[in-house]
UniProtKB/TrEMBL annotation:
This is DNA-binding response regulator. InterPro entries: CheY-like_superfamily, NreC/VraR/RcsB-like_REC, Sig_transdc_resp-reg_C-effctor, Sig_transdc_resp-reg_receiver, Tscrpt_reg_LuxR_C, WalR-like. Pfam families: GerE (PF00196), Response_reg (PF00072). Keywords: DNA-binding, Phosphoprotein, Transcription, Transcription regulation. Residues 4-122 form the Response regulatory domain. The modification 4-aspartylphosphate is found at residue 55.
Amino acid sequence: MTIRVVLADDQPLVRAALRMVITDAADLDVAGEASTGAEAIRLTADLQPDVVVMDIRMPSMDGIEATRLITINPSTAAVRVLVLTTFDHDEYVYAALRAGASGFLVKDMALDDILAAIRVVAAGDALIAPAVTRRLIREFANRPEPVSQPPPVVEGITERERDVLALVGRGMSNTEIAAAMFITVATVKTYVTRLLAKLDARDRVHLVIIAYEAGLVATRRS
């Protein structure tokens, strides 16, 4: 099955480079291109691609707002958004993920890694570059007041599920979580599936956001 991709970036050279590598991949196809957030929304609604590769800074409407509008619209909610940008500051990272993006990558990553990320997101999983996870931790560590208690959204989960959620929030893979908790990878997958259902989370990235907002990820304050 071919993965259909919409490229949203205001720089023609960036779109051309991505189009070239995507076209060379047998399982990927560029369904359309947009140079603004508003165009990305229209193309997504018209073409119903599997993945939108979304830049953040674009004229008239940025990629964060475009991502939010795509993911909350029932007609396009199934489309996955992979944010790809050179602007990797903390506020952009958090805003993009909070808007519903299923992944966040930076443009200096290897092209093969970007293609792999498109496949991961299209398959229904989520992906955050490790460096992005570290920036998220710093962003929450620098907030003026720590979360005093977990919000109601996590009150319905068990202690074991809370432990798994905290490790997901730290950016750990299922294999790493299994090793840390001395359980099998299959058991971790079961816990993650339960968390997605109980917390009404869109994907693993959404679980990361919930873990941070619930104060389950330990941070250091400078």
